[in-house]
Design brief:
Helix content: 55-70%
Largest sheet: none
Strand content: under 5%
Shape: elongated
Number of strands: 0
Order of helices and strands: HHHHH
Radius of gyration: 17 Å
Structural class: mainly alpha
């Protein structure tokens, strides 16, 4: 019987909601007290490229997970340790993609606030999500995860 879909561990909140909350909080802070970037026309184009790259990277990672037939939602039981596709370069490519989307939006919207809130979101994701995932994976796939962790960085 597959364990996919069953809760294996708890996370502080779903990562997409954490990243969305960071963007919304940053946009709200910018409405209250604007902190803009320089050269908005250059920044806007660069931001669009960064955001698109983030979407594509996260989608490729999610597709790799689905092809492996293991749970995509944080906290669900893993049936396989995924190390192919974007997982060759990052142990957390979906979070890297979401961070790139957030950073790209900061550039497109010309606000430093989203970058500030992104730093806070990354701390919460690191300690409230990734820490639990890494502990679970080291228990579920001890030798394979240890070797993978030594070979591939957490972020990039």
């Amino acid at each position: 019987m597959s364990t996919a879909g069953h809760r294996a561990f708890r996370v502080v909140a779903p990562p997409p909601l954490l990243f969305l909350a960071g963007v919304l909080l940053g946009a709200g802070l910018n409405a209250w007290h604007p902190l803009t970037l320089h050269a908005p026309s250059l920044v806007t184009g660069l931001g669009a490229v960064v955001a698109l790259a983030g979407v594509l990277f996260a989608m490729a990672a999610a597709l790799t997970f689905r092809r492996a037939g293991t749970g995509l939602e944080p906290g669900t039981a893993a049936t396989h340790l995924v190390t192919s596709g974007p997982y060759r370069w990052s142990r957390n490519p979906i979070y890297v993609g979401m961070a790139a989307v957030s950073a790209g939006l900061a550039l497109v919207l010309n606000t430093l606030w989203i970058l500030v809130t992104l730093a806070l979101v990354l701390l919460v994701v690191r300690h409230g999500v990734i820490r639990h995932e890494e502990h679970y994976l080291s228990q579920r796939f001890p030798d394979a995860y240890d070797a993978y962790r030594r070979r591939v960085r957490r972020w990039l």
